[in-house]
Every structure is written in structure tokens, then in C-alpha cells.
Amino acid sequence: MINLVENTMLDCVLLEKKREPDGAGGFLPAAWTESAPFKAAFEIITNQESLTAEARGMIRVYKIFVKKNLTLGHDDVFRRKADNATFRVTGYSNDEVTPEMSMLNLAALTAERWELPQ
To answer: Is residue 24 part of a domain?
Structure first.
């Protein structure tokens, strides 16, 4: 049985930061490479606190829904393929999961829109 959340899931890909030595004791600018693909559903968090923070220049925060067997952790970075938007995870995928007896097989976590550092 497919539920409404699964029907709205979009293709995403985890991004890995690769650092190369520059030969002088430092590192070249980080290169971000695509690694594991996955699907996620997105909900913009629109409670009053989030809206006030956003009006003051804070970054928009999202609730992300993924399959609960997917492990995402704080500071993981991924890209939504549909629009190439990049996100940084600000929670953990095992913080909020559906109960074992549920027909939903989902985990929920928070993430923010994020620009890859150069």
C-alpha cells in the first residue's frame, strides 16, 4: 500500500565532501560529489516561530520524510534533483520514526536550505 507521503516523494542524492591536499600542507577547495540516491518528501515548517525567524533573515527550515531504513545524520548534505536545491540536515533520521505496527515506514527529520561552501 502506498500512502500520500510516499506519493509526494522526490528524487534526492546524498552529497559527499571530498578534500584533496594542495601539496603545501593545506587543502584545495572542497569538491562535492553525488553518492547515494534516495527519495524524500518535503514540508516547509510554517509555525509562528519559524516564520518570525525567517523574517529576521534566518534560513527556511523543512521537515523531511524518508524511509526509516535510510540513515541521515546532523550536517549530512543532499540535493533535491527536481530543482537542484541543496539542504543540510539539522536532525537525525532516527529521532522521529513511525511505530513498527504502522503501515507507514517513515522517519521525519529537519533540514535547512543550504548553499555549498566553495
So the answer is: no
DSSP string covering 30-75: PEEEEEEEEEEEEEE--SHHHHHHHHTTPPPEEEEEEETT----TT
Structural domain contains residue 63: yes
CATH number assigned to the domain comprising residue 78:
2.40.10
What's the whole-model pTM score?
0.81
- Please give the C-alpha separations between residue 71 and each of 1, 46, 60, 95, 114, in angstroms, as whole numbers: 23, 25, 23, 11, 20
pLDDT digit string (tens) for 3-47? Answer: 777 889 999 999 998 888 888 888 877 789 999 999 999 998 877
How many domains are contained in the chain? 1
